[in-house]
Amino acid sequence: MSDSQPQPPRRPGSPDGSGGFEGAAGDGATALLLSGARLTDGRTVDVRLSEGRIEAVGTAGSLSAHRAARVDLGGFLLLPAPAEPHAHSESALTADAAGPVSYAVPDVQRRTTDAALLQLGHGATAQRSHVRIGDVPGLGPMEAVLQARRALRGLVDLSAVAVPGRLTGVAGADGLAMLRDAVKMGAAVVGGSPDLDPDPAGYVERVLEVAAEHGCPVDLHTDGDDPARLARLAAMAGGLRTGVAIGPCGGLSRLPLEVASRAADQLAAGGVSVVCQPQGGCGGVDQRGVAPVRLLRAAGVRLAAGSGALRDTANPVGRGDPLEAAYLLASQSGMRPQDAYDAVAGVARAAMGLAEVRLEAGFPAELVAVRGERLAGVLSLAYSRIVVHRGRVVARTSAVREYCDSVGAGDLELPRQGRAGA
Known about the structure:
By secondary structure, this protein is of the alpha/beta class.
């Protein structure tokens, strides 16, 4: 299945047979009825959406459309939409660049838009992008990401994390000033890479100071291989009401079990979320590896999963697909499919400070429908998807599988290649 270019919204009943993007802006619909959807508990239900929220959930056939557009979800599993807590949109899709990567504002805005739409097609209706500031590009990448965020409003909720360079010593004064400027511009989260600063503890202190000044959450890149540093971070994070997340923390897996367990307990006590990256690393840390997910969850740490690099030099084959991250957590880390999916959906939203989504009346209409009957099968073969953001369909991905004719295969009733009657 290849990635498709974004297409303009189509009205219901469009000639391509897809039924269009029901509930899209300008089509006159005030509500949307999702009919015949299967839930993870085995029920088949109708779900009516209105004003960006779930209005009602009832048994299949029990809800009327009330002049709402209707989407038939027969054969689809309906889930709370995943979220992307750790993306790098300003450097996305640059792995095949012929020369030096341009960080001019128009180029970064285009890459950010393309990456955000690609991940929206996967189902991520909320995305957090870590944006490097300082050095030669200065605040240009942040300006570009914020412009993309405004252009994408109504399709996807995109938030920016300001990631400064050095913050300590004489050389860190400019970085600290730029960090404050980025927040004033519209960066929603204060971040950074303390491992790359000569004084990691001082770096974290300055980030937390700026976050406290502006009432922003914190999201830091760290390998997590220094237990003393993690303990200090956890102690400082306990006093920040807006929340602290760190990742990818692959270094925790390289620590002795007793040491890693103690660090996990401290992170849990400090309310620090950990965002692991099962699909690969990113440019914010030097080493790879996945955080010890079982150990962290056993300690009570809020464990989310993000995608990290999306086809840049840090991971040239990164897909940016939350469902692949959940698949890897289930297949390689032994998590139950429900827990693995929760790491990219409910837990990811919580780590980002977003409202909870449930398939119940009153909750936000942030949903994804994936062809399949059970969650394990969906994580294995997540091909066709329908994405709902703020109560309307904003993206569709369809896959068709066909087989060529072969002698003796006539009784298998396989979908065939070629035109009917050929």
